[in-house]
Amino acid sequence: MNNPRPGSPGATRACPHCREIILESAAVCPACRHYLRHDAIVDAPREPALTPLRISGSIRHPGDGEPWEYTIVVSVHNDRGEEIAHKLIGVGAMNPNEQRNFTLSVEAVSTKVKARKTVATTD
Ligand SMILES: [Zn+2]
């Protein structure tokens, strides 16, 4: 996976709170939900992000047999079919008759909307 240079669309960094790799331009970490930039607070209201993809589904253990273990994996392919990301999201187990609900959402925001704005701080 190639990394765009800092300041360009798609540039990434590590969240200072949880160390997940997130968009450099993110105002709020999508993983731990901590605020990352002072201007995220004073810049409101912001244009909301689009959610061009959102899928929800659930699985239920049929109730007979042994417990299930499950693995959640997300992969992203570009328009040439090349895998550009592959991530293990989590694992878990389900006992008979238990249900798990899963939601995958892809948020998108114009890089123009996210254009950096310098805010003078006194601290
Ligand atoms: Zn975080």
* Total strands: 6
Beta fraction: 35-45%
**Approximate helicity band:** under 10%
How far is the N terminus from the C terminus? 37 Å
- How does the major sheet shape up? 2 strands, antiparallel
Question: What do the pLDDT scores average to?
Answer: 84
Gross geometry: elongated
Write structural notes for this entry.
By secondary structure, the protein is mainly beta. 4% of the residues lie in helices and 40% in strands. A two-stranded antiparallel sheet has the order 1-2. The longest helix has 5 residues, at 38-42. The chain is elongated and about 55 Å long. It binds zinc ion. Residues 15, 17-18, 20, 29, 31-32, 34 line the site of zinc ion (ZN). The site of zinc ion (ZN) has 8 residues, from loops.
List keywords for this structure.
mainly beta; two-stranded antiparallel ribbon; 123 residues
Question: Any chance you could write out the topology, listing elements then pairs?
Answer:
Elements lengths: L11 E3 L6 E3 L14 H5 L7 E11 L7 E10 L5 E12 L4 E10 L15
Antiparallel strand pairs: 1-2, 3-6, 4-5
Q: Quick recap of the structure?
A:
It contains one helix and six strands.
